[in-house]
Amino acid sequence: MADSAGLQFVSSYAFEAMQKVDVSRLAALSDPELRLLLPCLVRMALCAPADQSQSWAQDKKLILRLLSGVEAVNSIVALLSVDFHALEQDARKEQQLRHKAGGSNGESILVSQLQHGLTLEFEHSDPLRRLRLTLSGRLKWRVFLKSSELFESPVYLDENCLPCSPLWMWQRLCFMSAMETGFCVWVANVPDSFNEVCRGLIKNGERQDEESVGGRRRTEALRQLCQMNPSQALNIRAMVVEECHLPGLGVALTLDYRPDTPDEAVSPLVSYVSGLLLGTNSKVRTWFSMFIRNGQQRKRESSSVLWQMRRQLLLELVAILPRSRSTHVPNNSGMEEEPGSGYSGLREEHVVKASALLRLYCALMGIAGLRPTDEEAEQLLQLMTSRPPATPAGVRFVSLSFCKLLAFPTLVSTPEQEQLMVMWLSWMIKEEEYFESAAGVSASFGEMLLLVAMYFHSNQLSSIIELVCSTLGMKIAIKPSSLSKMKTIFTQEIFTEQVVTAHAVRVAVTNNLSATITGFLPIHCIYQLLRSRAFTKHKVSIKDWIYRQLCETTTPIHTQLIPLIDAYINSILTPASKANPEATNQPITEQEILNVFQSAAGGEGSRGGRQRYSITTQLLILYYILSMRRTCWRAPNNWVSMMQRKPKSYSAALMDQIPIKYLVTQAQGLQQELGGLHSALLRLLATNYPNLCLVEDWVCEEEKLPSSSPRLMRILEHLTLLSPGDLIPYAEALTASMALLLEPAVPRRILQTLNKLWMGLNTVMPRRLWVMTVNALQPSAKLLHQQKYTQNDLMVDPLIVLRCDQRVYRCPPLMDIVLHMLNGYLLASKAYLHCHLKETADFDRQTQTVSNLGVPGQPETPEVTREELKNALLSAQDSAAVQLLLEVCLPTSEEQQLGANTESLLSSIRGSVPGKSKQGSLGPRARGGVEDAEPEGGLLSDLREVQCLICCLLHQMFIADPNIAKLVHFQGYPQALLPLTVAGIPSIHICLDFIPELLAQPQLEKQIFAIQLLSYFTRCPSLSVARLAISVMGTLLTVLTRAKRFSFFMPILPCLVSFCQAFPPLYDDVAGLLVQVGQVCASDVATKARDIDPLITRLQYLKEKPRGAVAPGGGSSKLTLPRGWQRSWGELTLMSSSATVWRPPSWTSSPPPCTDYRHRYARGRAGDWTLINNPSNCL
Predict the structure, then answer these.
(1) Contact 201, 221 (CB under 8 A)
(2) Of 106-110, 424-428, 600-604, 663-667, which gets the smallest average pLDDT?
(3) Which of 120, 231, 529, 1124 could form a disulfide with 534 if both were Cys (CB 3.0 to 4.6 A apart)?
(4) Where would I find the H helices in 603-650?
(5) pLDDT per residue as tens digits for the range 182-195
(6) What is the DSSP string of 1040-1055?
(7) How many Å from the N-terminal Cα to the C-terminal Cα in the chain?
């Protein structure tokens, strides 16, 4: 039996020797230390080893020599001589018996009936029985949780723990007094089980170890184990955090930890606790915060791990405090030390550690709910109000100290402390510029002071809380009511609003401002002052500061730049108050804007110079200009009436010198670095310059042309390899030579290459390119007079684009350019008139007021009238452009002689229809043989290509504004263009919606045009509209005079054929209409042809007779015409030998299609249709 007096702590040296089986180090141990390791050493000496090497044989001899002089070895040898295999079998049976339902507590296989008590029986037993008693007690405790007197004293530790695992040993002995050391002794004898024991104890431990006696003893035991094996201390601490158990153990191990190379900056305790509270694992943060809160509820105890931690942190805080600091504030507060003096100066090597301590205390107080003692609060305030050196770390420390004062104002409780804080804030204001220049940082604490002062003046306490949390890097709960004292100090003693605005203008701009610069910058302060209108209220000019900051920007763009520009524009256009309407900021001058774009890459002004300003600056200035124009247009009238001077947007001459399209194209490739600036520019561009947002420009694809032999072609192909920005120097030469390409025999490839180069230039300099192109394509007579149009001329009158050389109308590549410019200038004209309307609204209102002065009862002209006039002008402008383009589609006399016609497109789309071909024209097959001989009249002629280009543009215009289509068709256009427009403009089907309205017009010309237009809608017909047209024709038949009836029915009678083809149910209605026409005509010629009555009777009989009736005898019914009918209608004889007979398909009785009113078909008795020539006499 071991002597308990010999038990002591196992040193880390002895445990390491046992782990590594270093016999030489074991031999150097003293006898008391060696006595603690006897069980393991005896096993090593007596058991057969797995290592049969010669070196181990020598080590074993050394171990036997060490054990030879120890008397206690004999008892341990006797224990190891037991038959452990038989003992294991009995233990298993005992275990099964204990778990059996109804098993008696007194039954046992390992131990028979005890005659004495367990302890006395143990003393008088041999080694085998002692082991059986130990196992029996162990199983008895496991099943019935009964106490055993054998394990209540450490005297029997050597004998009874051989058959037990270390983990079970502690689970049973954790409530025994003074057993931690004995437990460490047992683990030292089984060193390979160290990690398993520690993990098991932690996993089965309490979540809060200081709340129970067992938890505290478990923590103390694990702490001693780690002292015995210090190399595993950090691993054990990681297990604690992983399981979220025993938080006091983690702190205790950190307090005990002594690194080999200590970090002078931050202590292990600060790093560990900061990682728990400021880490990303919310479960760990909540677990440790609960440890802090629960620990504060108990009375202060020196043995408490929490109070040990707080004491250690306080010692570290005091150690870095300046030696000369004191809470006593000298009466002569004007005696301030110069920067770098020794008074209250924080040493440079302590700045980082001080910042870490401040953040840790913020986390302990804000997240874990730590309530600082008076001593802690005093020392914290001393640290926060100390003056660090002018380094980046010092700037960071001052910012953290300032935010901690805002987050926990209760640290300032006495007047002396409040005066100390005011002096420190005054020092911050004074030394801000020195710190920024000496530390070499862009984000200083001066901007934070200004920002907080502005928030206090505008009562934005929530913004201050967000600022504090973001600076400290943690989310803590701050009550807005707790900031009342700080608000009073800031707004009344330190920063008045006038001082804030005056100081903000003197703050230097941030060089190379970008999103990579974090922290609080001057731009944040200026933005808040702009929002609160502080500059305009105190008449402080901020224009120069904003301009300098915009010029000092780079990519990636800072997120505060766009809101800053928006707030600046709002302060320019919106008065601060009604009482002072002129209290607005000054806009950036045009000369300052020109300085930014003079050396812009791809600019339309001076080229080849050095690019002084970055692309970010140019894009921001462009955003400012476009946003300024849009805001001027949308300025409410109450703003304008408040201001004595009307805000004006920048002049057109300035805008002409800015490469807008080039800059937007450059921004498209920098979308990741520009954030939302590119999308904002596109939105503004669509509002201000819709002519620069054409769909064709965005979907234009690059294509390379094959090489050609002519020198001019090789030059043009070389230009196609250049980027659009590199083509700018050649723009003037290309446009000036366009007129030369209108000469005959110019290769089509040259024209196409020129078109491609022009479209490339259009992506970077569209407005200047358009002006040069319009001037270059003027007719030769105008070129002699040197008439040059300007950008403003073309926006006022976009139809100038169509006043070009007539040869352009038959040159498809150049016509494509002309149509592109026309579409752009039509959109630009809309934006120009809208801007002009907004700019002159106030002047017109004043003029109207003066003119109405002294005239009672005369109302002012409403604003809507000017808007309606503008819309009417735009509609007239668009419709005129459409009418001119439709006129271009008409073939000239020379083209008509070559066989060009406007119906070829419709016929090519509809396909080959029998009988539809016009007399004198070739069908598709016959025409195929002469296409090569007559290219001008074929499908690939220049006229056809120009017609397709024009139809595409008209299609887009009709989709953009369906009212244009309605207006153009109410105006009408040549009937010869109807086949072209219906077949070539897909969106023309919208005309079906207003054809009934067109039929209701009183002019016969419009009614005729509506019916003719309807007859061409074979792909999307409308039965109701066609029936309405027939009804209108029937109505007009009864009300028109003979002359008007002739002029009305002659053009529209061919349309009835199309109606019947599209809707066979209309046969009866059409036949009835024809009967009515015949009756009216018969009444007109009754005096000349009396024998017309039998014919009318016969026609009425045919109308009333059911269709498809069979004559008696099974034969077909035959029509017998009277002889007088033939005499009166000599030219319409049905029996003429020259008549062309056509039989319809079996499923219909409709006549063949025919579009010429001079040729009609009449149905014969055999069901055939006979061609009739010149039926004009019938009307």
Answers:
(1) yes
(2) 600-604
(3) 529
(4) 615-633, 637-642
(5) 678 878 888 888 88
(6) S-HHHHHHHHHHHTTH
(7) 144
